[in-house]
Amino acid sequence: MLLVSALSVHADERPPGVPSEARWVEVDRVTDGDTIVLMNRIRVRLHGIDAPEQDQPYGPTATKALEGMVGGSVYMIQVDEDRYGRVVGELFNSTEGYDINAAMVCAGVAWWYERYAPESKLLKDCQVEAQQAPKGLWEDDDPMPPWEWRRR
User: Fold this and answer.
1) How high is the mean pLDDT of the chain?
2) For residue 96, which of 15, 13, 4 has the smallest C-alpha distance?
3) Which residues are 44's β-sheet partners?
4) What are phi and psi of 101, to 5 degrees?
5) 3-class DSSP state for residue 36?
6) pLDDT above 70 (res 142)
7) What is d(CA 56, CA 39) in angstroms, rounded to the nearest whole number?
């Protein structure tokens, strides 16, 4: 009983940086570097980013990075639904409040998916920062974006 009430209290304690319209959701698992599954079995694709595929360099690294940022719960804003029926969402860390989508790009484990978030200055700036550092996948001479990898 104590654990249930602790979870309820945690869900109501919105950390700084989390927009008021974001709702707290429990996460069942991370399937790859840009997709999670909620406890209610809803699949959520992270808005504005594209992470390397599992069989692509940095794919497993991206998955592990997202697992570390997500933990057991996140705050989420539903942005859209994709052609596969997945919710497209913006995620925020449930304890520190940071933007998980942007953190993935800033860490160099995902690309800014400009096609789907062309106006995102935050994602653009994160990608430039990761490239200039260079961090993660940007340490490679010529990293292949996932959208090109899938067309091979």
Assistant:
1) 92
2) 15
3) 36, 87
4) -55, -50
5) strand
6) yes
7) 28
* Beta carbons of 112 and 126 less than 8 angstroms apart: yes
Residues tagged active-site: 45, 53, 86
CB atoms within 10 A of CB 69: 22
The DSSP bridge partners found for residue 23 are 76
Q: How far is CA 81 from CA 99, 130, 141, 146, in A?
A: 19, 28, 34, 20
Distance CA 91, CA 81 (A): 15
Q: What angle do CA 77, 78, 84 make, to 5 degrees?
A: 145
Please choose, from the candidates 5, 4, 42, the residue with its C-alpha nearest in 3D space to the C-alpha of residue 23: 42
pTM value > 0.85: yes
- Band of pLDDT at residue 3, cut at 50, 70 and 90: very low
pLDDT in tens, 18-76: 999 999 999 999 999 999 999 999 999 999 999 999 999 999 999 999 999 999 999 99
Q: Please give the Cα distance from 141 to 122 (Å, whole number).
A: 24
- What mean pLDDT is predicted for residues 72-82? 97
Question: Rounded to whole angstroms, how far apart are CA atoms 16 and 23?
Answer: 14
Closest CA to 53 of 149, 140, 117, 141: 149
Structure tokens given for 148: 């090109």
